Fold this sequence. Notes:
The structure is a homodimer.
Chain A: E1 4-8, H1 12-23, E2 27-31, E3 49-52, H2 54-62, H3 66-70, E4 74-76, E5 78-81, E6 89-92, E7 101-105, H4 106-119, E8 123-126, E9 129-135, E10 140-145, E11 151-155, E12 158-161, H5 168-174, H6 177-180, E13 183-198, E14 212-217, E15 222-227, E16 233-240, H7 253-263, H8 265-268, H9 274-280, E17 284-292, E18 295-296, E19 300-302, H10 305-308, H11 317-335, H12 339-369, H13 375-390, H14 397-403, H15 409-428, H16 438-445
Parallel strand pairs in A: 1-2, 1-12, 2-8, 5-14, 12-19
Antiparallel strand pairs in A: 3-7, 4-7, 5-6, 9-10, 10-11, 13-16, 13-17, 14-15, 15-16, 18-19
Helix pairs in contact in A: 1-4, 1-11, 2-11, 11-12, 12-15, 13-15, 14-15
Amino acid sequence: MSKDIIIIGAGLCGSLMALRLAQRGYHVRVYEKRPDMRKVSISAGRSINLALSDRGLRGLEMVGLKEEALQLVIPMMGRMVHPKNGDAQFFSYSGRKGECINSISRGGLNILLMDAAEATGRVKIHFETDCTDVNFETGEVFLQSLKDRTTFQDKAECILGTDGAGSAVRKSMMAISAALRFNFSQKYLDTGYKELCIPPSENGDFRIASNALHIWPRDGFMMIALPNLDRSFTVTLFMPFEGKYSFSGFRNEQDIHTFFENEFPDAYAHMPDLTEDFHANPTSSLGTIKCWPWQVNGRSALMGDAAHAVVPFYGQGMNASFEDCVVLDQCMDSYGDDWLRVLTQYQKLRKPNADAIADLAEDNFYEMRDATANPVFNLKRKIELELEQRYPDYYSKYSMVTFREDLDYAYAMHRGRWQDQILMDYASKTGDMTQVDFEAVFRLVSEFEK
Amino acid sequence: MSKDIIIIGAGLCGSLMALRLAQRGYHVRVYEKRPDMRKVSISAGRSINLALSDRGLRGLEMVGLKEEALQLVIPMMGRMVHPKNGDAQFFSYSGRKGECINSISRGGLNILLMDAAEATGRVKIHFETDCTDVNFETGEVFLQSLKDRTTFQDKAECILGTDGAGSAVRKSMMAISAALRFNFSQKYLDTGYKELCIPPSENGDFRIASNALHIWPRDGFMMIALPNLDRSFTVTLFMPFEGKYSFSGFRNEQDIHTFFENEFPDAYAHMPDLTEDFHANPTSSLGTIKCWPWQVNGRSALMGDAAHAVVPFYGQGMNASFEDCVVLDQCMDSYGDDWLRVLTQYQKLRKPNADAIADLAEDNFYEMRDATANPVFNLKRKIELELEQRYPDYYSKYSMVTFREDLDYAYAMHRGRWQDQILMDYASKTGDMTQVDFEAVFRLVSEFEK
């Protein structure tokens, strides 16, 4: 049996999987459409930095790179919520010490993974090479060099599609939809995003608190900022495409300045390159992709965004993709390279969890945009953090998703939504923290039965 | 302003729309992938005969072809339900006289429409011509002759995509998904279908009752039959692809005979060509397609299956497509050829109704397969038919969808589901028809408020 594997896409998920398979002794040929980011400066396809949390760290631990990756991060202990007028307020992500999420550069992490994969001697990454089709009967992959337009083929027992939301491998499945009964959906938000920047201060420091994910919730739009190692922040404005406050509403530079000055006065003071960034960076759309099946004939499977692109509001996109790799690896523990069993088991285990994180991420968009400005919601969050401090066994929905890599996303969603309902009800009937009977609340939220 | 229009697809919807636009004075160029069915015998892409009901007839009336079309039909007054052992039972579609649905040949109706369209002198249908792409900025359509592979372009103010479930126009929208924020879903049933035949008897008569849609409901699968003008019936077996009773379960000819003899003994006796048909005809899949938006830049819009492919279980696919044409025509009454306003209004009016009939059609699959064998359901249907006879203002869900072309599908769905719930509750608590208090039931079902 051939010990060769083809991976389409050398992004985070593809690079991690290539490395793991190499560690298992496979020879892996990776085809990547973009140029090598270690040689050519390329604009990030999507967000420049990402939130790395426990599920993602578990994936890095699997390949022995957890500690190295943690050298590249800036821990964020909670959300710093910036009201329009008044003082920012900090909400810890957890009532337990040490539970945080980590801001990390997409490019930096990707390079770490590619370097480690190539260092095994068993992974060859072919850049600027487009996958044009996959034959799921024969295992042939049809490729085209983007440098000289020559076409060629490759072939392997197993072909993994880690080629992102616009996956070519998935398109090859779509092309034989009726035969596969390939269910597929793509759904866009009416809100888009634009990346901006808060650079380091003149003496090279962070301009705002570094160990937090900053949020400026507003009515119908919001802005967030994540810290970078160079002491800048990547700022992202999320806003509807159309309507009163929308990307289509900016007619000139003055409109941009007026808007930021009025809506985000504290951030505006730290954004000297606002209009340049605003014009230079694209306005991008946000969507959720779901599909089924993920595997065909035991020949090929989708992983990461190719199988389940999610909106970024739970900070779980990369973490979910890394969890795909961990689960596929476990399936190989069970079934070796009986690929039909491996890939069938993999998709069965992952699909409900991918659906759950997709739905949670959409929910969190509304929570971040609207609820973080709502006093009842904020009281509920305070009650919940106090619960986490008093009762180490209590985990909020956010904590289950983010810090409990031993729990499925689907379980975290069901239990978390149930808890949220109870706590929001309780908070709406309670004036402030002094009136909370924590023993009683803890009993209420402990009654969950799967 | 140009008075030219391009239509992609000369099926039922495209031919009707081409005819209507010609009647309005437009010159229409239609591009159709398949050969001309009037010259070449081609296997029907999908079902051979269809149920034409009031919404479809309204479309034909719009172009003055209602009476001609009615010459081609065989009226079906209700469902003839065939139990496994025992006598078939007839359930009228309506308690009102004259309300029926009509079995019509897909090919016969399509030819009627194409002939009438060409007879206007303003419609030119180009067969065996594939649409490869649409530029929604410029209105250019990229085409390829399937006869000699030559490629060419055409251009018009307005391009209508009536090219069915696998629409090329929709694929061109998909290709610019992010820019359009093009929402799309395709969802397959686990059940597929195969067309079979009950030929005329040796003396040229119908072998089973001609004025009914025959149903053989079974546990997990079913068969139906619709009459044809030549006194044959087109029979369709709906069955899961996998599992105990499934298309994958037939290993040889004996399996086929045994299955039909056991499950459909009364039909089996009339199917002399069973195994030939079974091998010759494909096993096809069934799916629902939804998308949004349907129009781009006031340049192009999707109609019929291209916009909203539905499963066939409500017999409304063609009827819904013809209703699209009627609504587009009404929008042109309002806005002339201000295409942006016409197409925007058209999609706004049609989308909720297309979603409704898609959902109703899926529901009806389960009703036909499972519920028609359920005594409570059959009592409920009898109560409902009696209600329709006693109270001319009462319309069942089926009647609203099928006979009330003045009501939206969305309204019919909401009100119909509400009525069904009440009547199923009532039937489950009532032993038989003698115990029904019709005055009381009528009051219950009259309380619906939109």
